[in-house]
Structures are given as C-alpha cells and as structure tokens.
Amino acid sequence: MTQDPHAPLRDDVRLLGTLLGETLRTQVGDTLYQTVERVRGLSKSAHAGQDADFVELEKVLAALPVEDATSLARAFSQFLALANIAEQHHRVRRARQYAAREDTPPQPGSCEEVFARLLKQGITADALYHAVCHQRVELVLTAHPTEVARRTLLHKHNRVAQALELRDRPDLTMLERKETLDALRREVISIWQTDEIRRERPTPVDEARGGLVVLEEILWDAVPRFLRSVDVALQQATGRALPPLAQPITFGSWMGGDRDGNPNVTPEVTRRVCLLARVMGCTLFLREIQQLRGELSNIRCTDELRARVGDAREPYRAFLAPIRDKLRRTLAHLEALLQGQTPPEGEIYVEEGPLAEDLLLCHRSLHGSGAGLIADGRLLDIIRRLACFGLGLVKLDLRQESSRHTEALDAVTTHLGLGSYASWDEKKRQEFLVTELSGRRPLIPPDLPTSDRVRDVLETFRVAAEVHSMLGAYVISMATSPSDVLAVELLQREARIRKPLRVVPLFETVDDLRHAGGTIRALLSIPWYREHIQGKQEVMIGYSDSTKDAGRLTAAWELYKAQEDVAAACREQDVQLTLFHGRGGSVGRGGGPTFLAILSQPPGTVNGSLRVTEQGEMIQAKFGLPGIAHRTLELYATATLVATMTPPKAPSARWRELMEKLSNSACQAYRGVVRKDPRFVTYFRQATPVQELGALNIGSRPAKRTASGGVESLRAIPWIFAWTQTRLMLPSWLGVGEAVDEAIAQGLESELKDMYEHWPFFQSTIDLIEMVLAKCDARIAAQYDKRLVSGELQALASDMRARLDTAIRCTLRLTGHKRLVENNPVLRRSIDVRNPYVDPINLLQVELLRRLRAGASDEGLNDALLITINGIAAGMRNTG
Prior knowledge:
Blueprint (H helix, E strand, L loop, with lengths): L6 H22 L1 H18 L3 H12 L3 H35 L10 H10 L4 H10 L1 E7 L8 H17 L6 H19 L11 H35 L10 E5 L13 H29 L7 H7 L5 H24 L14 H16 L3 H18 L5 E7 H14 L10 H13 L13 H15 L4 E7 L4 H13 L7 E6 L2 H5 L1 H9 L2 H7 L2 E7 L1 H7 L1 H21 L3 E7 L11 H6 L9 E7 L1 H7 L2 H20 L7 H22 L5 H8 L28 H10 L10 H10 L3 H10 L1 H16 L2 H11 L5 H22 L9 H29 L6 H17 L4
Parallel strand pairs: 1-2, 1-8, 2-3, 3-4, 4-5, 5-6, 6-7, 7-8
Helix pairs in contact: 1-2, 1-4, 1-8, 2-3, 2-35, 3-35, 4-7, 4-35, 4-36, 5-9, 5-26, 7-8, 9-10, 9-14, 9-26, 10-12, 10-14, 10-17, 11-12, 13-14, 15-17, 15-18, 16-18, 20-23, 22-23, 22-29, 23-27, 23-32, 27-30, 30-34, 31-32, 32-34, 33-34, 33-35, 35-36
C-alpha cells in the first residue's frame, strides 16, 4: 500500500493546532477555548452542507463581546499562520525526499532536468553553456504595503519552521524530541503573547531594513548553494564549470528609492538606505574573509601569489590580511557617514572590482597548488556572493512620476526666461532636451528659486551623484513620451552623476501600454539617445494599474501585445531589450506561478534577461525559508533559460482575433461596472473594509495617489486587498464570464478550448483566473452585502455575485473541469482545509465593521478588526 506523502503535513498541522489549543486554555481560559472549538465545529459542518449551522455560526459570532471576539479572531488567525508554516516546511521536506531517492528522475524545473531536456531537444552543449553563463535575472524587492505580518512574528514563524525541520530527523533521542516539542510550545505561547498589530506605520528605512534582513539571513547562504547546484548540473550537461563571476541571478530593491506618490521617501532616506545596505554588505564580507583566513593555513602557493606576499610562511593568510583591514576601514568609513561624522583617513573599497581581482588570484593559486577542492569551497562562495550582491548587497532603483521631472524643468526654463517647458509640445521638448544633452554648458543655476517639490527632485539627483555606485536604474512612472526619458537623462547630467543610471520608462495603463511600442520607436530614433544607450534598453511594464484600469483578462492581453511591440521596436534598431515586469503577489496584480508566468511570455521577449519585482508578502512566501528560496531561484533561472532557448510559438492570426474579441467584451463589462455605474464606488466603500485599511500600519506609502477621488485615485494594492478581504476578489475575474459567455453563444467554444489547450499565454491566464475563483466564496461575500450595504445598493450587490457565478460556470466550461482547480489537487486540498478557518474570521469582520460604522465607541473594536484583516490575509495566502 502506497504511503500518503502528505500525511506528515497533516501531522504537523494537527500538532501545531494542538499546541495552539493548549495555549488558549492556559492563556485565556477553558470557556473561550470551548467557544473556539464550537465555532470551528459549526464552520466545518456548514462547509459540509449544513446550512443551519452557518446561520448558527453567524449568531454565535454576532453575540460575542469585543474582548472574546478579539481572542477568537486571534486564535483562528494564528492557526492559519501556523498552517502556512507547516505547508512551506512540507514543500521543502517533499523536495528533499524527492532528491534523496536514487530511483527518481530529476525534479521538474530543476537545473538538472531542464538542462537535460534542452539537450534532448537539440540545443548544443556550447549553446546551453553560453546561455547559462550569460543569463541575467534580477529580482527586485519592493515594499508595497501587502505584508501585514510584523517582522517580529515572522522571526518567530521561522523558528517554528526550524523546529519542525528538526523534528523530522529520524535519529533524535527521546530527550531531544521532548526538547524540540518544548521549543515549539514556547514559540506558540510567545506568538500568542505578542501583539500582532503594528502600532506605528513603518518608515521607508524600516521597510528597507526588513528587506536587508531577508538578504542577510536567507539569501546570503541560499545564493551560493543555488549556484553550486547550477555548477553541478552544468558540468553534467556540458562538461564545463560555471565561471566564478557568472551572474544568473542578482537582486535589486525599491525600498527607500520608490518615491512615486510617497512623500516619506526623501533624498536623505535614499542616502541612508544605500549606506545601510553598504554597511551590511561590508559586515558580511568581512565576516567571510575572517573565516576564510582562519581556514587557509596552506603553505603552498603559485608564483603569482608569492610575488604579492614575499616570504610569508602562510601566504594566504598574509594575502588576506590587508583585504580584511581594508574592509574594516571601509566599514568604519560608512558608519561614520551614517552618523554624520567625518570618516577616518585610509584606503577603502569604493567598488567591488579590486576585491574580486584579489579573490580570483587567491582562487587561481589554490588551484595551481593542488588545493582546487579547497578553492571551490568557502572562497568560491565568497566570489559568487560578490558577483551576485556586490559590496553594497543590493542595487537600489529610484522611481519617480514623470510629471515631477516636467515640473522641475519648467522651473528651470521659466527662471532662465526660456519659456514654460510644461506648456511646450513634445517636438519642442525633444529639441530643447537633445540640444542641452548634446552641449556642455550647465543648465541649472545654483541660485534657482524652487518649490519644495522641485527641490526634492533636484536633491534626489544630487544624492544619486553621491551614491551612484549603489544604485541600479531610474524608473519613470506614467511615462508617455520620449521627452520623459530625455528629461531624466538631462537631470542626471546636471547633477554630474559619474556613471549615469539606466533610465527605464514604465508603461502602466492600458492606453500607455498600447502606445509603448511607438514611444520606444520614437525614442530610439533620436541619434543622441541611440549613441548614449550603446545598444541596450530596459522597459518596465506595470501589471497592477493595467488590471485596475481594464480588468484582468484585458490587462493580460494588452501587456502581451505591448511586450511584442516593444520587442519589435528594439529589434528594428538592433537594440538588446530587457523587460522589467512590475508584478505583485496576487493574480490581480500580475502574480502567479513563476515558471508558467515566464513561459507564457510572448516569443522573443525574454532573450536571456529578465527583471521582476517581488512585492510585500511574496518576499516571505518565496524566500522566507532556505529551501523555498533555493527552489524560487532555480525556477526563475530555468524558466528564463527555457523561454530564451525554446520560446513558444507565436499565436495564429485567428487566435489573436479571438483574444481581441474576448478582451474587448471583458473590458466593456468591467468598465461598465467599475467606471460607468454611478452606484459602484459607494458600493465598494460599503461592502469592503477599504475605508478602515488606513488604520492598518502596513506600509509607508499612502493608499491614495490623491487625497480625494474614487477608484481611479486609489492605488492598485488596497483596491485588490479590500476585495480579497470579502472573498469576492472582484478585480481578478470581473468581465471574464461575460466575455466567454458571449463567445460561446456565438459558437466559438471549440476554438476557445483549442486556444486553452495549445496557447501557453491563454492557458496561463485562464488557469490563474480559475485559481482566484476557487478562493472566492459568494456565501461569505453575501454576508458583507447583507449587513453592510444599504438597501438601494442591494440590487448591485446581487448582480456582482451573479457575475461571479457566471465567471465560474464559463471558466469550468472552458477548462473542462467539473470542479475549480481539480487539476491541482494540492491547491484544492489547501483551499478546502483553510476555508472553515477563514470563514469565522470573515463573519467576525462583518460584525466588527457593522459595529464600527454604527458608531460603537469600544476602543478594542479597531484592534479586533485589524486582527481579522491579518487573519484573512493569512488564510487567502495573497493579501494585495
């Protein structure tokens, strides 16, 4: 009889649930524990089809006093968080068990499996080797406000995962098993006694520190382990090793650099974040060099190294001593700058090049002295870390909205008597910018009178000149024309940035996406710019705002076409393109399984280079545990390789025609509700907790771009977040059912099914929508409508739930599934297990919102509400 591979997961969840139950009894008493158990039983039976128990569940929760409601919400929220930990640990455990068996093929998506598959498909060993060595995937960590869990709790959650891992060891003694169980019990109690609510909104520097912790605690070790696995697989496939300085994966960050709509990201914040990253990077490299020096007691070396150390008996230790001392001086220099003090004298590392050269010399000497195995241990790991992270640990991007640059240049031209730059047409702006860029005269006078907004822009460029070696790209939000890019180039020149940042236009709305290719063509037709970029162009596409603008189906198609057009524009001018995908964690913001997302990109748009944002809660989900981080890095690398070497076929003209038809219908249906129905904004505010989200200190950036306005002024993240809380998740599916229904009525069902079966882009799009629909719950959404929405809006509320039913019915018909996500049994089981624990939190949230909006003054209501928001986020596994 085959053993159930998921039995250990159930055992872990059961154990954690038991420990949480024990904690409830000791911390809040048996009475509340019994209430929790009663609620859990009612919720489970309600899910099993006992409608009377759902009604009883509502009554029980509605009658709870605030203190009990808070404790109950915490109990269910913490169980879901613990279940998440168990699931992540189980993923790592399953991967290790799979890899440990000699009789199993390599794990799908692993380097070993993908390299072998590509060779079998006719890719030559030389081509494969070249592609792997020259691939560039950059993961950009961002601090969008979707991470609701406090970092204090995340550390505790990681310790729970470590204890679960230790429990799996088969050789634990009875005493060790007891100690491990006690450690778990301590963490569960500690979690219960920790305030899960952020009492203060994090600053951009706080957010940056959080991102740096992930780099320090997880990725610092995960990256060299991952690169060793690439090296082994590459040698198996091609007979050649991965070069020490190869960079298949690197990291960027927006934390402390993304100032678009965030007045809290000041020039001083950017400067400080860069210095903090540099301090952490130097600290980590100093630690590694000290440990390496302790290891390398070897007395044999090559003449090349001997020439540097003279007759030192232990040449490697002598060679590494000045490197250690220089790192110490660099660290002291940076810490002085952070504290606003004058740095001490002495030579320091400004860039990583000299350090890399010395470490490579050391590596060559060990290989040349019969100690190659030692060279390829800690030393090679340090070299690879240096290639991946650099001394600054992560390159920081800057981002600002295009109108802010226009405003700054307008202040300059107006002061100089040249006219109003803001009022000029595109042709005149380009002529002015190119003339200035082609000349050498300074444009901005030192005595320029400026507003606070203009001063902020100019000071940002001055700071960029100071810390340019720690910066990556300059991203322009709301870019619509070539002058938007040229303006940033001119402002960089005026700030005398020694190595100008690459300038990246970001196309976000549907209208901007439709004009993206034309904008890039116009930009590349400017001789000064063509010469300046030296054959390389980066373009960013935004998933969140395009979905909010037109709905998920239309946004997916417009993003696909924009990528095709931008890639064609670059090919026409023989320019190498890197696409930067601004994806979020949820499907409504472009999220989804990494491998499928990359493989469903248009052919010819990956080409060995890719940048992708990793936002908010997804940083913890994808990099929170070492084993998960390794798998995430592997999937990014192998998917990019596959998409580069064996891109999907271009869709036929007929498929494109049908996709255009679906897109137009879906967009019309979506905008007909969100933009044109005068009742919708009021319904949105009543039916969701969007108005209360401002009290949740989950990010440094305001929820709205402007203080007033409706859905159009709301950032895409709280827009998605609010609908996720109610389990309606409307932005991710609205319009899909209407579009598919209309196509089926026109006799196109068989063609749509053919598209789903054979077109990776269409299949991926529909599968992601199906996943969202599987997480929706109309019965729960109806409770928000019934108890929070005014009578005149009930017809609209009912219509939204009817549209959800249509979307589910049409998606099932398209996929041929009898039940949503039946082709993914792991996900299906996870949803079915979680829902009985999420439902009570939803029903509590409805009751708490009702009390708050009725004017109840109990000061504990807000805390209870925020705990329900955390809990639902944990249960849904994607908050924004």
